[in-house]
Each structure stands twice: as structure tokens, then as C-alpha cells.
Design brief:
Layout lengths: L1 H29 L6 H19 L2 H10 L6 H18 L3 H24 L2 H23 L4 H6 L8 H24 L12 H14 L9 E3 L5 E4 L2 E6 L6 H20 L15 H15 L3 H15 L7 H8 L13 H20 L7 H13 L25 H20 L3 H5 L5 H10 L9 H9 L6 H14 L3
Parallel strand pairs: 1-3
Antiparallel strand pairs: 2-3
Helix pairs in contact: 1-2, 1-3, 2-5, 5-6, 8-14, 8-20, 9-10, 10-11, 11-16, 12-13, 14-15, 14-16, 16-20
């Protein structure tokens, strides 16, 4: 076992360096002065080179070869599965290409932010072309002649393919479109209006973070343009944003990111700084953030408690009672922004991006035509026109940092969350009583014990199947949405 111990010691150092690299990304989004972007690009490239070299170090290959055929326990076998996968994939990507991707995507993030601020799509397109070309080159190295998009998707949801997701999303899209149309034709619930102080929003949002189990001794809440979660183990940070006319944006962005963060915080400490010490896939990660945000955070029981908290914080804000507030929180309304979309329409935003990025990677869509393609698809799916680039093709950070293959994991996570919600409700029969008191522990503890503590021990779909007792399917999500919005809108 000394060979295994040597391998794990080396791997822990690599994981620690990866956490440092992640902290650079966090700093870039939250604290870094704008003028530092070119230097940060060099720093990111240097870290990427170091990590790439360690992941393909000949010692790793020798250790893996020596452990071939050795009988190992479940945990050690899972560690080797992840290490071998990383070694095999990283070995296929030239070190210069990995560094180039890190440098260009770091610079691209700053260019995207400026283009978004100035509503200037043309400013962003040249670097986007370069990013796509680099990611295609990487996919060609990884794919072994197979579909390029699947090679990129495998970074975020191992074992899942574009055609599989296309079939699942094909079943979702018409049902969601029909339900959306029916809700928008029905009388609308009340809409939140007024001014909500930013500082008071941040005070309440920290209360919400703690209510959902976020450990602020090992985390922090900051503000950023695009909410995100960063880190794992003992240092897991989240960001949120405020809007003086829409406190729900702040509160539900926070709950969403806390779902990601508590997943990382709740992984068994035995796996700290090892491949098992992080979420197993982005689809599973998203299942945690979405079930926290929606099936728990937007439930009738929890919104009843939140209504009282908002009245205590902001005074009378124009919503008459808890039932009206529940309908207000879950109001279906037209909007441009994916992260602000209601549960019913959210996946339509994701499917738009999934189709467009597959076309970009395959070469069926030219980057110069992306804005027009986005606007045409948006008008077709949502029935109104994009008014400005920051509400359209420039709204998300993902493509600027090269995350092609990431978007579909959002909808896959919603599918997983639908399955988990069904199992959780069966396992925790008095859940609503606790949620009505602002106590999320029965729900979050169930998720901790069935999903989060395992980290990367099991493959993603196997993990969800173990938790739910059935293979994942879009059916529970659709049933949940139809029941919930059918009641709210009297459909």
C-alpha cells in the first residue's frame, strides 16, 4: 500500500494547488482591480501549467501501473478511478494548449465584463472566437474521433452524451412551453414592488445562508456581478448580488449558491484534498442548488416563514398575507435573465444555450452570427424580443471562461432535483411543519446523508439512483411543476 500512499500524497498536493488556482478565480470576480486582468491572465496560465504538469507527471503513470490489478477497498478504488481519468484526459492535452486556454479565458472574462457593461457585442466576439477555437482543439485531442461536444461535456458530467441530453430535453421542452403558455394566460399573482435597501438585503441573505446550513466559519458571502460558489472542504465561498427593486434576486441567488457550497462543506472530511473531496459532477451539484432554491426555498411552507422575516426587515411591503406571498415568489412572468427566471421557464433558457453552443462547437453556427441566432431563438421560445445584449447573448459569464458543455448540467440538475424531491418527501413526512418555522434541517440533513457526504465516491447517476431508489427521469420534475403551478394558476 506504500505505492497507493505515495500516489495519494502527491495527489493531495495537486488538489491543494488547484484550490489556490480557484482562489485566484474568486478574487478576480470579487476583489481584483480591473486593471490587473492582463497580469492575472499570466498568473492563471502559470498555475494551469503547474497543475497540468503534475497531473501527467510520469510518477503518476508509474504509480497507476503498479496498482493495476491490486485489490483495494471501495474508497481507494474510487480515488484511483478519478485519478486515472484525470491522468488519461490531461495526458491528451498539450501543456501549451492548457496554458493558452487558461490565459485567454482569464483575459476573456475581463473583456466580456466590459462588453456587457458597454452593451458592445463586437468587443467580445474576437476573444470568443479564440476561446472556441482553443476548446475545439482541446476537444479534438480528447475525443479520439468521437463527437467534439461530448468530449467537452465529459468534463462536467462524465459519461453523459449530447444525444442523451437531447432526448431528455426534447421530452421537457414541449411540456414546459405548454405549461408556460397556460400560466401566462391566467390571472397573474401579485408582483413585488417598492424599494428594498441593499444593506438590509445582505443582512437577511446571511440569515438565509445560515438557515440552509452554510457554515460561515468555513465560508463567506460577498457580492459579484454573477453569483457563484467557489472552493471545497474547509474554505467554500459564495457570492450574491442585490437589486433595490428585487430582493428575491439576492435571496434566491444566495440560497442557490448555498446549495452548491453546503454540498462541498458536507463531503466527508476523510476525503479532504483528494479527488473524492468535491462534488461528483455539475449535474449533481446543480441538483443541490436547485432543490435548495426551489423545492425547499420556494415551497409554500418556507415562504410562509420568509414572509414574516421580510416584514420584520422591511416593514409592510405591499403583499397582504402568506398565501399571496407564496404566489408572488413563484410568479411566472416574462424576463430575459436565466438566473432570475421562475422555475417553470428556467429550463427553456438553458435549452436555448445548449443548442447554440453545440452548434458553435460543431461549426454549424459562426460566432459572427451568434447574436442574431440567440435573438431569433429567444423570440421563438419566449414570444418577445431581446432589448439589449446584456439581456441576451452577453448575460452569462460561461462562454467567456470557456465553459462549453456546462450549461446542460443546469437542466440535468433540475431533473435530478425532481427525483430527489420525490424521495425526500417520502422519507421526511413532516417536512412542511419544520419549513414553516424556518427550519430546513430535516431536508438539508437528508440531502447531506444521501448525496453530499459521499463526494465523488459514486458515479453521478449511480449516486442519484441510490438516493432515490430509481433511475433518474424527467417525469418527477414535470409532475412537480404541473402540480405546483396548476394550483397557483388554477390550471
Amino acid at each position: 500500500m506504500s505505492t497507493y500512499e505515495d500516489l495519494m500524497g502527491f495527489t493531495r498536493e495537486t488538489q491543494a494547488l488547484a484550490q489556490v488556482a480557484g482562489r485566484l478565480d474568486w478574487d478576480q470576480e470579487t476583489m481584483m482591480p480591473r486593471g490587473a486582468a492582463p497580469q492575472r491572465g499570466e498568473e492563471a496560465a502559470a498555475m494551469a501549467s503547474v497543475l497540468h504538469a503534475r497531473r501527467i507527471d510520469p510518477k503518476v503513470g508509474a504509480w497507476l501501473a503498479a496498482l493495476d490489478g491490486v485489490e483495494l477497498d471501495e474508497t481507494a478504488a474510487a480515488q484511483l478511478r478519478h485519478i486515472r481519468r484525470s491522468y488519461d484526459r490531461t495526458s491528451k492535452v498539450p501543456a501549451k494548449l492548457a496554458a493558452r486556454i487558461a490565459r485567454v479565458t482569464s483575459e476573456g472574462q475581463g473583456i466580456w465584463a466590459e462588453a456587457r457593461r458597454t452593451e458592445d457585442v463586437a468587443l467580445f466576439l474576437p476573444v470568443l472566437k479564440e476561446i472556441i477555437a482553443l476548446r475545439v482543439e482541446e476537444a479534438q485531442a480528447l475525443s479520439g474521433g468521437g463527437p467534439l461536444y461530448d468530449a467537452l461535456l465529459d468534463d462536467y458530467e462524465p459519461g453523459t452524451t449530447g444525444p442523451e441530453l437531447e432526448m431528455m430535453f426534447g421530452a421537457l421542452r414541449p411540456e414546459l412551453a405548454n405549461l408556460r403558455a397556460a400560466a401566462l394566460e391566467a390571472p397573474a399573482p401579485p408582483e413585488l414592488t417598492g424599494h428594498f435597501d441593499d444593506a438590509l438585503q445582505m443582512t437577511l441573505t446571511r440569515t438565509l445562508a445560515e438557515r440552509f446550513g452554510y457554515d460561515l466559519q468555513h465560508g463567506r458571502v460577498d457580492k459579484a456581478v454573477h453569483p457563484f460558489s467557489s472552493g471545497s472542504g474547509l474554505d467554500v465561498r459564495i457570492t450574491t448580488r442585490t437589486n433595490p427593486t428585487d430582493p428575491f434576486n439576492c435571496f434566491y441567488s444566495t440560497i442557490h449558491e448555498v446549495g452548491h457550497a453546503t454540498y462541498e462543506q458536507n463531503i466527508s472530511r476523510d476525503y479532504l484534498l483528494t479527488p473524492l473531496g468535491q462534488g461528483v459532477s455539475m449535474g449533481v451539484h446543480e441538483s443541490q442548488s436547485r432543490i435548495y432554491e426551489n423545492q425547499i426555498g420556494r415551497s409554500r411552507a418556507f415562504t410562509g416563514w420568509l414572509y414574516g422575516q421580510m416584514r420584520d426587515t422591511f416593514g409592510d411591503f405591499g403583499i397582504a398575507d402568506e398565501e399571496a406571498f407564496y404566489a408572488c415568489v413563484n410568479r411566472v412572468s416574462d424576463g430575459f435573465i436565466r438566473t432570475e427566471a421562475d422555475e417553470l421557464q428556467y429550463n427553456l433558457h438553458v435549452l436555448l444555450r445548449f443548442d447554440l453552443e453545440r452548434a458553435l462547437i460543431s461549426g454549424d453556427l459562426a460566432v459572427d452570427d451568434l447574436e442574431a441566432a440567440w435573438n431569433d431563438r429567444f423570440a421563438a421560445d419566449f414570444g418577445f424580443a431581446v432589448d439589449k445584449p446584456s439581456n441576451g447573448v452577453l448575460q452569462d459569464v460561461h462562454w467567456s471562461v470557456g465553459l462549453f458543455g456546462y450549461f446542460p448540467t443546469y437542466s440535468l440538475g433540475n431533473v435530478y432535483a425532481g427525483c430527489l424531491k420525490e424521495a425526500m418527501r417520502a422519507a421526511v413526512p413532516d417536512l412542511d411543519g419544520a419549513l414553516a418555522e424556518g427550519n430546513t434541517a430535516p431536508a438539508t440533513n437528508w440531502l447531506r446523508d444521501t448525496v453530499q457526504t459521499h463526494g465523488g465516491l459514486y458515479e453521478a447517476r449511480d449516486l442519484i439512483t441510490r438516493a432515490c431508489g430509481a433511475e433518474p427521469s424527467e417525469a418527477p420534475l414535470l409532475a412537480y411543476l404541473k402540480e405546483k403551478f396548476g394550483v397557483i394558476y388554477n390550471l
